[in-house]
């Protein structure tokens, strides 16, 4: 084993186009999409029959049949069946957390290669039986005599047929993610115009990235879809301005969050390939970037003062300090667009003097970023956001971006920051650097 | 399709059946739909991907097979024909979205130890390039081939190792496969209709068993391969059966057997 940690290399990635829910991938399961995406990665990097160190992925919306999902995907793929795999789940942070786990094992010399990412379907979502019905069914299953079973069957009531459909709401607050984001948007005075501008830029940037072929070696078509079907290349601030609010409606005229500046429910999968430099060289594969460091934070959004999606605001300063960097030392910022307002509130928090002192415990705020470096090939507002797939999408995208740029200011290696907010008041952030 | 079976049943008792194979070649162009593929994949255990499962074109060609066999010009009565062997060659992976040109004809009408056998041959091309071949061998018990020509049946290895998997095959498997394949032969649908044809219960479609076995080798076989199977004892529904797989020199040998050792299917992938 290595005595000092090395840096894991990001070699590339593969994803399927993201599809709006109940559309093109309505018939595809998590396992279908994850296996397809893994096989696409295997084909792209010539890994058929290879035993990798591990494959780590997850899904946020899971059926009970999705038990051991990632291992099942490996067994159905062209990777050697001797490749271990496990599932992780950290809501929207799943894909990036998976990459951190793989990168850390590579850094420690425990493995030489790994795949990280995730998958989600909002179409093929698990629908559970009503909780009262489930209790009766469990009891019937455990009953020993016919009489016991009949007695339990007599307890069934028509109302129990109503199924439990998963909702996009926080168990402890009962508010949807959008409602939480609306509170934060109001708190930071994020304007409707600024949100619509960010959304339009996301569509514009992703469309341009497709046009210049940037996604050619990142995306493999699936079920007839070749591009993310949420992408509106002709999106504009004017068009977005016509949409009515969907979150924070109780704010009346002050409601700012629309279907256009919030991410839609989407289906898809994304994976990134990591390895040691030596492993990449042995397999004649390029090293696009190195995984520098990562940090995870969490906030008390239930009883405390922080918003549900604001944990990255805390994670980034800690990550910067540990690495001796400032927020301005980056060539690219990949801030996951759960909602346009989330990105903008995060940036405002980093610029705020009082917030820096009172909440982050810093002498000075992190300061503004060069907005032309933000989500330069689009982000979740345009591509969509199949929850656990977003991290894999961003890791592969950013690795390619820093690789293309090569060097940044003063001849240093090009560097990028990833920031992903997640349900449960969590945030996962990481730094990649050109190889 | 049920109409064709009914027509064929009537035809079977009428005199005037042809004595040799018709020269008919039936053609059809089809672009498979995601919904049909998804249904088929679910029933047979394949993942829903962009490459068609190797056994899927068989169900696309099947209506043409039935049309050819139900015609008066076909020398053997369709009801009672038993699928005894099947060979599929995938020349290259076929992608969802490609337009497939199908051609079906009959050949090799020959003697079988228990009657006569005939091959229904399907060819699938994309833009003039052959991508897939299928050969389904059917037996007509007690029938006579026009010449003394002895039919060929594949010589398949008998694998007899430990079970790789145990499948619990539910009673509705025949109905579910009928819905995705169009093969509504009553022997597969329910016990009552199966009894009318001499089976104690409904039996699984041979091509379902073949597809389910191939699906179990997902990820382990190349895009281009030949999959050959021989159908043995009918798989009565419902059943619990075992899949046996053995890595061979250039592919896989496999078998599906019941828990008492009776063999339902033997096959090879090369």
Describe the structure in brief.
The complex is a heterodimer of chains A (435) and B (270). Chain A has 435 residues and is of the alpha+beta class.
What does this protein structure show overall?
The complex is a heterodimer of chains A (435) and B (270). With 435 residues, chain A is of the alpha+beta class. Among the domains of chain A are: 131-161, no CATH class; 177-213 and 291-434, Peroxisomal Thiolase, Chain A, domain 1. Chain A is built from 14 helices and twelve strands. Chain A has helices at residues 30-44, 69-75, 94-107, 131-142, 146-153, 177-187, 192-211, 237-241, 277-282, 311-323, 340-351, 353-358, 380-383, 390-405; strands at residues 8-15, 19-20, 54-57, 85-87, 113-120, 245-247, 257-258, 266-275, 289-298, 332-335, 415-422, 426-434. In chain A, the strands form two sheets. In chain A, strands 1, 2, 3, 4, 5, 8, 9, 10, 11 and 12 form a ten-stranded mixed β-sheet that branches. In chain A, strands 6-7 form a two-stranded antiparallel sheet. In chain A, strand 11 (415-422) and strand 12 form a beta hairpin. In chain A, helix 4 runs antiparallel to helix 5 (146-153). The radius of gyration of chain A is 22 Å and the shape is globular. The mean pLDDT of chain A is 95. Chain B has 270 residues and is an alpha+beta fold. Chain B has a single domain (2-269), classed as Hotdog Thioesterase (Thiol Ester Dehydrase, Chain A), CATH 3.10.129.10. Chain B contains six helices and ten strands; from the N terminus they run H-E-H-H-E-E-E-E-E-H-H-H-E-E-E-E. In chain B, strands 1-3-4-5-2-7-10-9-8-6 form a ten-stranded antiparallel β-sheet, with helices on one face. In chain B, a hairpin with a 4-residue loop joins strand 9 and strand 10. In chain B, helix 1 (2-13) packs parallel to helix 3 (56-70) and helix 2 packs antiparallel against helix 4 (173-181). Chain A: Residues 287-433 form the Thiolase C-terminal domain. Chain A: The active site is at 92 (acyl-thioester intermediate), 385 (proton acceptor), 421 (proton acceptor).
């Amino acid at each position: 084993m290595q005595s000092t940690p090395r840096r894991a290399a990001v070699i590339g990635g593969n994803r399927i186009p993201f599809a709006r829910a109940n559309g093109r991938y309505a018939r595809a399961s998590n396992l279908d999409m994850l296996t397809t995406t893994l096989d696409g990665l295997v084909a792209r990097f010539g890994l058929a029959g290879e035993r990798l160190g591990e494959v780590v992925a997850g899904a946020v919306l899971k059926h009970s049949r999705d038990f051991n999902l990632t291992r099942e995907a490996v067994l159905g793929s062209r990777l050697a069946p001797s490749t271990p795999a496990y599932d992780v789940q950290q809501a929207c942070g799943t894909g990036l957390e998976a990459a951190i786990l793989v990168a850390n094992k590579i850094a420690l010399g425990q493995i030489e290669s790994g795949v990280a990412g995730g998958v989600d379907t909002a179409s093929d979502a698990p629908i559970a039986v009503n909780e009262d019905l489930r209790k009766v069914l469990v009891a019937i299953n455990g009953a020993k005599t016919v009489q016991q079973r009949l007695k339990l069957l007599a307890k069934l009531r028509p109302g129990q047929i109503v199924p439990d459909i998963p909702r996009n709401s926080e168990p402890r607050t009962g508010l949807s993610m959008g409602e939480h984001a609306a509170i934060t948007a109001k708190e930071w005075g994020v304007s409707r115009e600024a949100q619509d501008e960010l959304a339009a830029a996301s569509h514009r940037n992703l469309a341009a990235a497709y046009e210049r072929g940037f996604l050619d070696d990142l995306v493999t078509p699936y079920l007839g879809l070749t591009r993310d079907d949420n992408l509106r290349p002709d999106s504009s601030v004017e068009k977005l301005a016509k949409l009515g609010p969907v979150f924070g409606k109780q704010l009346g005229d002050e409601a700012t969050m629309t279907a256009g500046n919030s991410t839609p429910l989407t289906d898809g999968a994304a994976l990134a390939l990591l390895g040691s430099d030596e492993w990449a060289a042995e397999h004649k594969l390029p090293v696009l970037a190195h995984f520098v460091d990562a940090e995870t934070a969490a906030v008390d959004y239930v009883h405390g003062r922080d918003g549900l999606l604001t944990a990255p605001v805390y994670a980034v300063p800690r990550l910067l300090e540990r690495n001796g960097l400032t927020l301005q030392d980056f060539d690219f910022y990949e801030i996951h667009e759960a909602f346009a307002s989330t990105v903008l509130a995060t940036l405002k928090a980093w610029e705020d003097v009082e917030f820096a002192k009172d909440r982050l415990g810093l002498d000075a705020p992190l300061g503004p970023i060069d907005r032309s470096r933000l989500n330069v090939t689009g982000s979740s507002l345009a591509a969509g956001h199949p929850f656990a797939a977003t991290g894999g999408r961003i890791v592969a995208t950013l690795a390619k971006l820093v690789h293309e740029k090569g060097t940044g200011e003063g001849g240093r290696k090009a560097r990028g920051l990833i920031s992903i907010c997640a349900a449960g008041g969590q945030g996962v952030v990481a730094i990649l650097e050109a190889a | 399709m049920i109409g064709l079976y009914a027509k064929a049943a009537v035809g079977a008792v009428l005199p005037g059946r042809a004595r040799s194979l018709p020269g008919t070649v039936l053609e059809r162009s089809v672009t498979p739909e995601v919904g049909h593929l998804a249904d088929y994949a679910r029933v047979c255990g394949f993942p829903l991907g962009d490459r068609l499962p190797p056994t899927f074109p068989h169900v696309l060609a099947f209506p043409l097979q039935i049309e050819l066999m139900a015609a008066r010009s076909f020398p053997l009565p369709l009801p009672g024909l038993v699928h005894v062997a099947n060979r599929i060659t995938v020349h290259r992976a076929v992608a969802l979205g490609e337009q497939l040109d199908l051609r079906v004809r009959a050949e090799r009408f020959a003697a079988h130890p228990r009657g006569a056998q005939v091959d229904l041959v399907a060819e699938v091309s994309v833009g003039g390039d052959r991508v897939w071949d299928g050969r389904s061998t059917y037996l007509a018990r007690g029938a006579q081939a026009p010449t003394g020509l002895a039919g060929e049946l594949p010589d398949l290895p008998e694998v007899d190792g430990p079970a790789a998997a145990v499948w619990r095959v539910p009673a509705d498997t025949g109905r579910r496969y009928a819905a995705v394949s169009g093969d509504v032969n009553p022997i597969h649908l329910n016990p009552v209709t199966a009894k009318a044809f001499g089976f104690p219960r409904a039996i699984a479609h041979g091509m379902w068993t073949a597809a389910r076995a191939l699906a179990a080798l997902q990820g382990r076989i190349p895009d281009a391969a030949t999959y050959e199977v021989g159908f043995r004892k009918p798989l009565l529904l419902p059943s619990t059966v075992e899949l046996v797989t053995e890595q061979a020199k250039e592919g896989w040998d496999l078998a599906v057997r019941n828990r008492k050792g009776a063999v339902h299917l033997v096959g090879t992938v090369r």
